[in-house]
Amino acid sequence: MTTASPHPATDVEVVVHPGKQELSDAIAARLVTAVVDAQAARGVAHLSLTGGSLGSDIWRSVAALPARHAVDWSRVELWWGDERYLPAGDPDRNDVQNDDAGLASLALDPAHVHRVPGPDASESAEASATAYAETVRSSGAGAFDIMILGVGPDGHVASLFPGHPAQQTTDAIAVAVHDSPKPPPDRVSLTFEALRRSRQVWFVVAGADKAEAVVNGTTGATLDVSSAAQVTGEERTLWLVDADAAQRL
Ligand SMILES: O=C(O)[C@H](O)[C@@H](O)[C@H](O)[C@H](O)COP(=O)(O)O
């Protein structure tokens, strides 16, 4: 399938798994292999994570996967595509939900886990976005190796919501988002420009309520309908979906 998005850097590939559990387990297996490959090629793997239920299920699956020991987790640089602007440790933060699901059980180097500053560590969401962008810029990462993105039923990815003013931010790596249509209202998100600087982009989507978002995302829908359709990887763009989310393809 070829996307008609305005940035068709790569063909879009869709892989369908029967249910959410199989999907989560398959993403985990794919992730371990991709991280090993990135480390073999470049020494370090830059991996960007997503919130959402599936975004955390993946870490439950990785933590149960014997092959996780094939990864040198201390040489993984971790990022988040977006974060809810809440204090460190808040159970509604994406990083905390990922940690609780299993991420925290891996032998990561805390210095390589790049959390988005919350209100306890920054003056505003704008200041947090500036600081996070500076961390991305100074990390030396030419591109993220793997960008994992959940997709909302409304077509949002990271915290870039169709029709929201922050969606179209240009010339920035990260942006503050206020009045988010999905709570909580204040967030920090990578921009489209930053999300596209990824060797591989993996959209991870489960559930019948996402079926329309999957059609829109894989067929190059416009900005006002789909943020997902605006993002492709430099080398590969994968839609990893369950049968319910794929039902309208
Ligand atoms: O910050 C958020 O509110 C979430 O991170 C959100 O962006 C999520 O990734 C998608 O809505 C998909 O979520 P599900 O996997 O739960 O459907």
Automatic annotation (TrEMBL):
Pfam families: Glucosamine_iso. Pathway: Carbohydrate degradation; pentose phosphate pathway; D-ribulose 5-phosphate from D-glucose 6-phosphate (oxidative stage): step 2/3. One of its GO terms (molecular function) is 6-phosphogluconolactonase activity. It catalyses: 6-phospho-D-glucono-1,5-lactone + H2O = 6-phospho-D-gluconate + H(+). Residues 20-239 form the Glucosamine/galactosamine-6-phosphate isomerase domain. It comes from the Bacteria. Keywords: Hydrolase. It is an enzyme of class 3 (hydrolase). Belongs to the glucosamine/galactosamine-6-phosphate isomerase family. 6-phosphogluconolactonase subfamily. Hydrolysis of 6-phosphogluconolactone to 6-phosphogluconate. This is 6-phosphogluconolactonase. It comes from Knoellia flava. The lineage of its organism: Bacteria, Bacillati, Actinomycetota, Actinomycetes, Micrococcales.
